[in-house]
Structures are given as C-alpha cells and as structure tokens.
Design a protein that fits this description.
This protein is mainly beta. It contains two helices and 18 strands. A hairpin with a 4-residue loop joins strand 2 and strand 3.
Length: 247
C-alpha cells in the first residue's frame, strides 16, 4: 500500500472515530433504528430518543427501540417543520430539553400517562399548538415549556405539579383559560407575561409568592382571585401586574 493510500486510510479511521465519539447538539451520539436515533439510559431503565430523520406529518412514536422501552425524548424533533400531530407512548416519563422546540406546524400532541417531567423549552415556539392535555402524575414543568405557543387557548395543570419554571406561558397570546394546581407554592417570573387574551385567573391558596412580571402585559386581565400572598421581600404589585388590570 502506497503512503498516500495509508494517509487516506488513517484519515478515514480518524473521521469514523470522531463521528462515533461526538456529543452535544452538533452531533448525536447513539444508535439508529429506522428514522430514530437513540441511546440507552441505564438510570432511567430504557432508551432516550435523541434524533429523528423522518418527514411524516402524523407520527406515532414507538414504545420500544432496541428491545428496551422508550423512556425519554431529548431535543429529538427540534425545528421539525413537518410534524402536525404526535402521539407519545405511555412508557415515556420525561420530555426534556428542546424536545419539540420550534415545531411550528405541530397542532396536536398526545402526552403519555406516565409523564413526570416536561423539561426546559420542550414546546417553545410551537406556534400552531392549540391545546394540550397534561396528565395526572406530572410533577415538574421547566422553564419556557410553552413559551411562544401563540395559538394555545387553554391549559389545565394537574394538582400533581409541584414545581414550575420561569416563563412557562410567556407570549401565549391566545391563552384565555388556565387552571393552576392546588399544591403550587410559587408562580415564577414571567409565567403569564404577554398573555394578552387571558381575562381571569384564580391563584390557589397554596401560593405564597408571585414572581416578577408574572402577569405583565396581560392586557385583557380583569379579574384575579388572590390568596393571602406574603411577598414582602419580592416584587411589588406594579411589577407583577404591570400593564394588566387596566394599569
């Protein structure tokens, strides 16, 4: 074998090794099964979908890959402009960082019954999503989960939710109805900021603090039922409800 052929062979081997060891958002680590890319997560006891190469509009995600249950979805469908509807199997317990962010054609999503966690930015910018049914058993909603879902009209958050991140419904301009969980203690910063169609809301008795700009720019907000919220060290009502309630 000549020296140039040897150099080419070495370069090809290095490229293959690099591709196999790459991580982060620029390259996906894992195994391919049809249109899905996945990896095994022993801590969760199953597989995590990390990528999707298909172009279907109506997708039913399989409940097993590699003979293991599908337990999580991580950034797999980010900026997929083809998806119109998605059915997620009941085996999934976690929908994590940017799973469906920027899926601007997505109108309908069926969430799994066993879901416990919606991670940061899970549905950020899904501008065609009109409604979503959050399952009982969900405990955690991360930052920006439905931020910029401008077609979303109503949400019922189950009482199982005990933690919500910031800006969950920021700029959900069509949101008219929200039911908050009875066990929540904090409504974080910017939770409903820019929800221009929201006209009334009842704050649960469990809430002890309202975040900065939680209801800022809620231009239609005319009625808020408040518990005895102690916010002496937090933002003032002006910061919480700025440009709301006729301000």
């Amino acid at each position: 074998m000549g020296k140039w052929a040897c150099r080419v062979l070495v370069l090809c081997m290095l490229a293959a090794m690099t591709a196999g060891c790459s991580g982060g958002d620029g390259a996906i680590n894992g195994v391919s099964a049809g249109e899905f890319l996945y990896e095994t997560d022993e801590a969760l006891g199953g597989t995590v979908i990390r990528g999707y190469t298909g172009t279907t509009q109506h997708l039913v995600i399989p409940d097993t890959l590699g003979n293991r249950p599908v337990v999580a979805i991580h950034a797999a469908f980010e900026n997929n402009g083809n998806l119109v509807s998605v059915v997620i199997p009941d085996s999934v317990v976690s929908i994590t960082l940017r799973a469906f962010q920027g899926c601007t054609s997505l109108q309908s999503v069926t969430l799994p019954k066993g879901l416990t966690t919606l991670g940061n930015n899970a549905f950020f910018g899904c501008t065609s999503l009109t409604s979503v049914a959050l399952p009982d058993g969900l405990t955690t909603i991360g930052n920006n989960v439905f931020r910029g879902c401008t077609a979303l009209t109503s949400v019922v958050i189950p009482d199982s939710v005990t933690s919500m991140g910031e800006s969950v419904f920021f700029d959900c301009a069509s949101l008219t109805s929200v039911t908050l969980p009875q066990g929540i203690t904090v409504i974080p910063d910017n939770t409903f900021r820019g929800c221009a169609a929201l006209s009334d809301i009842a704050i649960p008795r469990s809430v002890t603090a309202l975040g900065n700009s939680a209801f800022r720019d809620c231009l239609s907000l005319a009625s808020v039922t408040l518990p005895d919220v102690s916010n002496s060290d937090g933002p003032t009502a002006m910061h919480i409800f700025a440009v709301s309630l006729g301000a």
